[in-house]
Amino acid sequence: MSDKVIYVMYDDDEALKDSAKKLVSKGVKISEVFSPFPIHGIDPIIGVKNTRLGIMAFLYGLTGLTVATLGMRYFMVTDWPMNIGGKPNFTYLDNILAFVPISFEFTVLCAAHGMAITYLLRNKTLPGMPAQNPDPRTTDDKFVMEIRLNENHGISEAQLDEMLKETGFFELDKKEIN
Amino acid sequence: MQKEAAIREPLILGHKTYHDITEDVCRPIEDKAPKMWYTLFGIALIIGLYGVGSILYLLGTGIGVWGLNKTIGWAWDITNFVWWVGIGHAGTLISAVLLLFRQKWRMAINRSAEAMTIFAVFMAGLFPLIHMGRLWVGYWVLPLPNQFGSLWVNFNSPLLWDVFAISTYLSVSLVFWYIGLIPDFATIRDRAKKPLSKKMYSILAFGWSGRAKHWNRFELVSLVLAGLATPLVFSVHSIVSFDFATSVIPGWHTTIFPPYFVAGAVFSGFAMVQTLLLVMRKAMGLEAYIHTKHVEYMNIVIMVTGSIVGTAYITELFISWYSGVEYESYAFINRATGPYWWAYWSMMTCNVISPQLMWIPKLRRSLLFTFFISIVVNIGMWFERYVIIVTSIHRDYIPAAWSMHFPSHIDIGVYVGTIGLFFVFFLLFARFFPVLALNEVKTILKGSGQSYKESPDYHKHH
Q1: Span A155-173, average pLDDT
Q2: Which of A132, B73, B133, B152 would suit a FRET pair with A52, their CA atoms being 20 to 30 Å apart?
Q3: Structure confidence at residue B40 (pLDDT)
Q4: CB of B188 within 8 A of CB of B27?
Q5: Of B161, B217, B229, Cβ closest to residue A101
């Protein structure tokens, strides 16, 4: 199905935010916003949900802690208990203080790398991938709003043009996609 | 948009726009490198290669080429290791701890401070590796299944804790740094005209788009990484201090070590940041972003951590007497008045007296004075490690075994070489990478830019 995408460019983050507010209140669905830096407060306006990567980080950290605990218990208690100056070390609990540093480090290691890898995969940003932004100026000082016609059935193209004109955009670009 | 009090000095001077920030940061990368860059790079490379040569000679001959002897089994190697790890503490402190405290001034300096951190930890990591003598069996420090039966590394040993701490710190700092770099690489990618640089920066930028959802994730990932990196910074140097504190050598066996080492690390790290940034801001024309206020904030950190270090020195001295243990007392009397008195008093002068001068506002706002003190501090912090390590072991329980440490030319070659390599890395970074978190800096332009703060609309409510 062919579709028309409208890229509306603004030269200020506040201008984009204000017009997004106006458009949304008139029932326009904004499918995407591209900006050189995070625009604070844009997410609830265009309906971007908060990420759950934080939960993932916690789970990765928990995995790291478990692996470190089980690993050290196996190496130092089950498989080959070391006699270090005759100190009691034949249970995990006897030795727990010596295991604190590595348990902590390994938790952080797994949480940080697990989250970073998930972040890159979820964003589909990996080495050598082609640029995904519609205009090279969106990484400099321009802010672009993407509106798709087939996501806005109730509004005709002419109506949309009229609404957009009122917002005082910087540039407007339309593309047919298949 | 976030606003701040009118009496706060703006963080971005002059009349900048978003585009100006992009221009100011990207132009030094896109233009031809100045002659000065080639000169400095050449000097650093020669020194670095001399270090590589010394390391190769050491690996070929064995660590007997160091000036160690039967009494002094640890000297410059671990001194340099601790010195470099310490320097590597400022970057992550700036980007993680200051992010949690919402200190906006970090944005102008975090990128290069973190680069410095990573390169410093590289240099630190070299020392334990070459200290093994047989570099190729370095992987034996990992708990890998092997053909020797139930042979595992010792998880009760602080040296193994160090392996985990340093590798976690290095890799997490690297990831934190790179995730911040991705959007800035995208900016350079989208501006690049030459096909080769376009290709290179496209690869580095990972196809970054700047979508609202991606920025949402970006901000959370930065926050969580900061949350993870903050205790990490404190743990790493605590664990480095355990290398000494868990031993039973008088002078090392001290419970004060972890906080004292962490404060010292931050102290020397900030000093190195000052040394590098004061030159870089001038050479790359970034005076509008890194200015006197930033330098002053960093000097205050140096003053606070320097005071903690000074307090720790004096506490240590007092406790050695108060403990009533004659070996412990002797270790400290010997430090201050024995054959290494010059090292001890250099350390005291550089680390205790010099940061106290930062109480004077005029001095801590003077760039020239800051540059001078930043170098003094790093000399002092090298002596601190040397004093702790060598003076504690050069006179042990048997006077017949007392000895002195004299560095060999390989000791000196390896140490000076790491300084050269460090600058090779840093100069390459300054040449090809965005040295300022340019897209992050754009977020504070309206809240803390001079022209915005001075405009009559700034304090009106929207």
Answers
A1: 79
A2: A132
A3: 92
A4: no
A5: B161
CA B436 to CA B21: how far, in whole Å? Answer: 10
Cα dihedral B213/B218/B221/B224 (nearest 10): -100
Residues present in chain A in total = 178
Across the interface, whether the CB atoms of A112 and B212 are under 8 A apart is answered no
Q: How far is B459 from chain A (nearest CA, A)?
A: 16
Contacts of A130 in chain B (CB under 8 A): 202, 207
Tokens of B64: 């007997």
Contact B108, B436 (CB under 8 A): yes
| Pick from B26, B18, B112: nearest CA to A36 | B18
Count CA atoms closer than 13 A to B172's CA, side-chain side.
35
Average model confidence (pLDDT) across chain B:
89
Sheet holding A32-34, edge to edge: A32-34, A143-148, A3-10, A171-177
Q: What is the pLDDT averaged over residues B257-278?
A: 91
Residues of B439-457 as b/e, b for ≥16 C-beta within 10 angstroms?
bbbbbbbbbbbbbbbeeee
One-letter amino acid of B305:
T
Give how far B85 is from chain A: nearest CA, Å.
Answer: 16
CA separation for the pair B65, B9 (Å, rounded): 54
Tens of pLDDT, residue by residue over B74-106, are 889 999 999 999 999 888 888 888 888 888 888
Residue B462 has pLDDT above 60, yes or no: no
Structure tokens at A162: 């009229």
Say what the pTM is. 0.91
Task: Give the rounded percent of residues in chain A with a pLDDT score beyond 90.
Answer: 22
Task: Please give the angle made by the CA atoms of B118, B124 and B130, to the nearest 5 degrees.
Answer: 130
Condensed to tens digits (0 to 9), the pLDDT of residues B142-173 reads: 888 887 778 888 888 899 999 999 999 999 99
Nearest residue in chain A measured CA to CA from B157: A98
Distance CA B194, CA B278 (A): 31
Q: How confident is the model at residue B2 (pLDDT cuts 50, 70, 90)?
A: low
Q: How large is the angle between the packed helices B106-131 and B257-283, nearest 10 degrees?
A: 120
CA–CA dist B3, A34 (Å, integer): 24
CB contact under 8 A, B443 and A37: yes
Average pLDDT, stretch A152-159? 78
Q: A123 — contact with chain B (CB < 8 Å)?
A: yes
Superfamily of domain B40-141+153-438, CATH level 4? Formate dehydrogenase/DMSO reductase domain (1.20.1630.10)
Inter-CA distances, B78 with B54, B180, B387, Å: 17, 32, 12
Expressed in angstroms, the distance from the first to the final Cα of chain A is 6
Judging contacts by C-beta atoms under 8 Å, the chain B residues touching residue A115 are 221, 224-225
Average pLDDT for chain A: 85
Q: Domains in chain A, start-ordered, CATH in brackets?
A: 3-49+142-177 (3.30.70.790), 53-123 (no CATH)
